[in-house]
Amino acid sequence: MYDSEDQQQVVEEFPKKANxxxxxxxxxxxxxxxLARKARxxxxxxxxxxxxxxxxxxxxxxxxLALGLRFEDKDLxxxxxxxxxxxxxx
Length: 90
Fold this sequence. Notes:
By secondary structure, the chain is mostly helical. The protein has helices at residues 4-13, 21-27, 32-39, 43-50, 57-66, 74-77, 84-87. The protein contains seven helices and no strands.
């Protein structure tokens, strides 16, 4: 298992943002409405995802494709959550 110093380092290395959807969307000069239409999902879903709320894998796939990315790049846009080892008390 990890000692507290290792644990702190891993926690600090996790991205500060839950995902990079907004950053990529803005870089491509797309509005939230345009992304929602292109992904064929609700605008409120885009709002929720950009706020960092969880979404289904199918929603992630639709967003990635609408942004012109491959599904294989999902971890670059939607970084994995913290491992359970750091969430659960020992």
